[in-house]
Each structure stands twice: as structure tokens, then as C-alpha cells.
Specification:
Helix content is 5%, strand content 40%. The chain is mainly beta and 78 residues long. A 4-stranded mixed beta sheet has the order 2-1-7-6, with no helix packed on it. A 3-stranded antiparallel beta sheet has the order 3-4-5, with no helix packed on it. The chain is globular, with a radius of gyration of 13 Å.
């Protein structure tokens, strides 16, 4: 799967069914090439990030439950 396909998917937390946003970046292992974490930016406007209470999400790959054609389901405690 290409990064351009991956970043178009909506990320949803299955604990509370909340939309977290879309994937903005990866952290991967340089030796194996495997994805370690996905990064999802806060949902607020980045220009006003000083006044934003929403956190940026850094989700470990083992917290991803399923990757579907349109969404990514994760299981994280917020």
C-alpha cells in the first residue's frame, strides 16, 4: 500500500467510536522497513494551535485493529 493511499483513510477509535482524523505521517524502522507508529494531527486549525485543546495522536502499530478500504480502526485509551 502506498503512503498516498494510506493517508486518505479516516482513523476511528473503537473504544469511543470517535473520529481522530487522517494519517499525516509514519515512523518506521529503518532496518526492517516496517511501520512502527502513525501520526494524526489535531483536528483544529494549525494556525491557531496555541488555543487548541485537541492533542496530536501518535498511535503504535500494535494498537491498529484493522485497516480497511476507507478507514483504519484503532484501539487506544484517550
Amino acid at each position: 500500500m502506498l503512503f498516498s493511499e494510506f493517508k486518505c483513510k479516516e482513523v476511528i477509535n473503537i473504544k469511543d467510536c470517535r473520529k481522530l482524523g487522517k494519517v499525516a505521517d509514519f515512523e518506521f524502522d529503518h532496518c526492517t522497513g516496517q511501520i512502527k507508529k502513525i501520526m494524526i494531527p489535531a483536528s483544529c486549525n494549525k494556525l491557531y494551535n496555541l488555543f487548541c485543546d485537541d492533542p496530536d495522536y501518535c498511535i503504535c502499530y500494535n494498537e491498529i485493529c484493522q485497516i480497511g478500504p476507507d478507514i483504519i480502526l484503532v484501539n487506544i485509551k484517550i
